[in-house]
Please model this.
Amino acid sequence: MSTAPSTPNLAIFRSYASRPNPTTLPPSILLSHSETCLTVFDAFPKSIFHFLVIPRIQPPLSARHLADLRSLLRCEKSIAKEVLMNLHEEANNVKKMIEEEMMKLYKFKWDIWMGFHPISSMEHLHLHVLSADLYAPKMKLKKHYNSFHPSLGFFLHLKDVLSWFDAVPSYYRRDFRNFWQMIKLNASQYEPLLKDGDLCCWQCDRVMESMPRLKTHLQEEFDKLTTREKAKLERKRKRTDVPTSSVQVSVPDDERPEKVARLTPNQDDGSNESAVGGDLQL
Model:
């Protein structure tokens, strides 16, 4: 008998955020948590490292206030900014953990991005924290790639969102309407960014005719970065006269998993709860 394909639980982040005790989530889902946020593995990672920081539902905010970024920005200014600052603090902790894993596995660190999608299929606000490489196996579609392209406009960097509060000091006045026109968090503005235009490398702007060619190119770019960093380590070794055997930079193919060390969820925890992450139906 055939089994119908599973339907993504679009409200699963909300269920995570509603839990009084996040540690009841299995380690295959939960990375860490604080009083205000929890961090989960993205079940469909688009980079080597990819996590989601989710605000917990706590008074005075309800699930409705935390439905998405638009909903949060409609809240009172100080409350909305506090939520974003809490996300920022937790994301910085996650960044440190990622950087530690980078050093363990690759012996160097590269950029880590933090940002939101202005429109999402998932029904609870979540902040993406991911490494700047974008060639993970789950990166398959142009719309997914464009949603994380750092300069295309769909990926809203956290630092830019926080800057909105200072850029327009009066935008929370009840009679102030131009704020929403300024930031334009509406589908008609952002959806074309996902599918229209060329498919370009986020590093060199080179146009690619297909996702497979783009991913091959991104892999090559990352390999070049690894080679450069390896050369730096070798130069440093020569200056400090460290034995060659202590310098290990290259990583065999079988040691380059999507999720690694502590940042790897335990798939044998016996839980039947599936991790659902990312924006599945942008």
Remarks:
- Confidence is low (pLDDT under 50) at residues 1-6, 174-178, 255-261.
- The two ends are 32 Å apart (CA to CA).
- The first strand starts at residue 30 and ends at 33.
